[in-house]
From TrEMBL:
PANTHER family: N-ACETYLNEURAMINATE SYNTHASE (PTHR42966), SIALIC ACID SYNTHASE (PTHR42966:SF1). It is an enzyme of class 2 (transferase). SMART domains: SAF. Keywords: Transferase. The keyword Endoplasmic reticulum does not apply. The keyword Transport does not apply. One of its GO terms (biological process) is carbohydrate biosynthetic process. Gene3D superfamilies: Aldolase class I, Antifreeze-like/N-acetylneuraminic acid synthase C-terminal domain. GO terms for molecular function: N-acylneuraminate-9-phosphate synthase activity. Its EC number is 2.5.1.101. This is N,N'-diacetyllegionaminic acid synthase. SUPFAM superfamilies: AFP III-like domain, Aldolase. The gene is neuB_2.
Amino acid sequence: MNSFLEIDRPYVIAEIGGNHEGDMDFARKLLLDAAEAGADAVKFQAYSPDKIVNKLQDPERHQHFGKFTLSLEQYRELAEMCVEVEVDFMASVWDMGAFRFLDPLIAVHKIGSGDLTNYRLLKPMAETGKPICIATAMADMEEVLAAVAFVRDVNPAIVESGGLCVMHCVAMYGDPRDEYANLAAIDALAAALPPQVVVGYSDHTLGNVAVKVAVERGARVIETHFTDDNSRDFRDHHFAHTKEELNDFVVYLRRRQEMLGRAVKVPVFEVETSDRIAEFRRAVYLRRDCLAGTVVSEDLLTTLRPLRGISASEYFKVVGKVASRDLVAYEPLDWGDFK
């Protein structure tokens, strides 16, 4: 995929992230679950604690990230699994070494919210020419527009082709209240960004409501965290979609696309046949017999189903006409019956 505009429905990313908790077997299971649920892409977070956190300044967080690490070779295996099950492999890469190793395997790049201003990493991603998703939690519009301008300066083709997605996101980790979602910001992004930039949504709420609302507000890329059990201890499991929830969302997207149809108002002739239209529509009928030469007044007329003869829309054109022959009540009328 070179552009998010190539697909006819929103692109769905199952964010496994660190929910594998450093267990390769668990990572494999979650990948297969996400693929079976219908995700377009499965995303991980490829990091090492030494490349993301200053262990002298924040030793506790450094230790935390160390528990959720897989090796780059393990990510290669996961990328190969993605090919086998026909989903795109994605990984947020948080340092240049991981970027150089994983770039050949990655279908769509992702810049996490924490790296929105990390132009050192954003530049080589833009230079690849691959589609990029940029999350915007904790950012204001000025920062968002600056990042978009930076990508455009590095590689204008990504923006012009629809390969750049800016994702509304709120860092509500540990406190996923509905009022924090601020989904109306999707409208603000769409209004402020260049028209070729695709707007998306990275979800941290509970359930399927926010992702559906985001789609209806125009989000064309949806990222949602993924788990097999919301009751697991690690925080990111708590607001993640399960296989069943993700599949429900994907089915919704597919049915939605089928239901949208075309932006033209005409009968759906596959079901709204001429016979059905005639059955539902009304025609002008005489309420009683009348002789030739009778001037037709409203008290002689009615409109009834089915539509045979003169349409009810022509009712007032019949009023005042003169019968050219003897006419029988409730028989279909023709303009030749009048003069």
